[in-house]
Amino acid sequence: MSILFKNTLFVFLAIFSFWAIAEDEKESKKEENKTEMQANLVEKCRDKDCLSEKFKSAKTAVEKNVIIEEYCLEIADEKEQEKVCSEAALILIAGNEKERIKPDYLRAIKLLDVACNNKQHDISAISCTLLASIYQKGEGVVKKDAKKAEKYLEIGCKKEELSSCVQLAEQFNRQGKMMQADKIYKNNLNGFNQACENNISDYCYLLGNIYAKAMGVEKNSDKAMDFYLKSCKKDKENTARYCYAVAEKLLNGENIQKDEAKARELFKIACENGEITACAKQGAK
């Protein structure tokens, strides 16, 4: 799998997957970030550089109006089929003006289903998460369907795709199925820990919530605070975002011990890293 494609895939998934982790962020800000990231993906895929070398080989066929999924489904090698189908689905979601491909969610879903049910893990599990997100949100002409979303998230989670597990747990929570959600959190603690240690701050913050709110584990405020602070410091790109969120928790004593001095310290870090709303709260009491 090309590095460019993998980065593009994860950028797109970031729109869908991690909205559930930072539950304390304002809704308006989340929508603003989502719109910006989606625009970036569409711009990339309007350029042929979005395509991998493997998919570029289909360029002539596409220009001759051969249906894109037919090219994908005709590939005999299962692993190669998975790669091409997944990438073709991304292109169909975003569209590609240079290749004269119009956005088409229904065709993309067909390809994502092929990839999700593939035995390979590398892309297939991520495809399950993306497919589920389309049904959760009701993207394009696709109607919301919680049952279909749950089906694909369960497939992805069984393949140890953490983003699928997180979204599945969040869906269970929204449905009031707390015990099922807690079981998912408990069963995937090792994976979340590993992701946190690999500097993915979203999972550090999630672990903070898990221990602060006793989600599948016994409440442990010390562990919760350790993970909250890691989310603030592990990933520079998210420093402002999570330092601000943790500072708010400390200021209000939300599921952790109130600590105004520490809150001011984190507001300062968030401010210095671009979170403007934190600047006025450095002296909060």
Written description of the protein model:
It is a single chain. This protein is mostly helical and 285 residues long. It has two domains: 3-187, no CATH class; 201-285, Serine Threonine Protein Phosphatase 5, Tetratricopeptide repeat (Alpha Horseshoe). The protein is 68% helix and 0% strand. It has 17 helices and no strands. It has helices at residues 3-17, 27-45, 53-56, 59-63, 68-73, 78-94, 105-116, 124-137, 146-158, 162-174, 178-187, 189-197, 201-212, 221-233, 239-252, 260-272, 276-279. α12 (189-197) crosses α13. It is elongated. The protein starts with a helix and ends in a 6-residue tail after the last helix. Mean pLDDT is 76; it is low at 14-66.
Summarize the structure.
The protein is built from 17 helices and no strands.
How are the SSEs placed, and which strands pair?
Layout: H1 3-17, H2 27-45, H3 53-56, H4 59-63, H5 68-73, H6 78-94, H7 105-116, H8 124-137, H9 146-158, H10 162-174, H11 178-187, H12 189-197, H13 201-212, H14 221-233, H15 239-252, H16 260-272, H17 276-279
Helix pairs in contact: 1-2, 1-8, 6-7, 7-8, 8-9, 9-10, 10-11, 12-13, 13-14, 14-15, 15-16
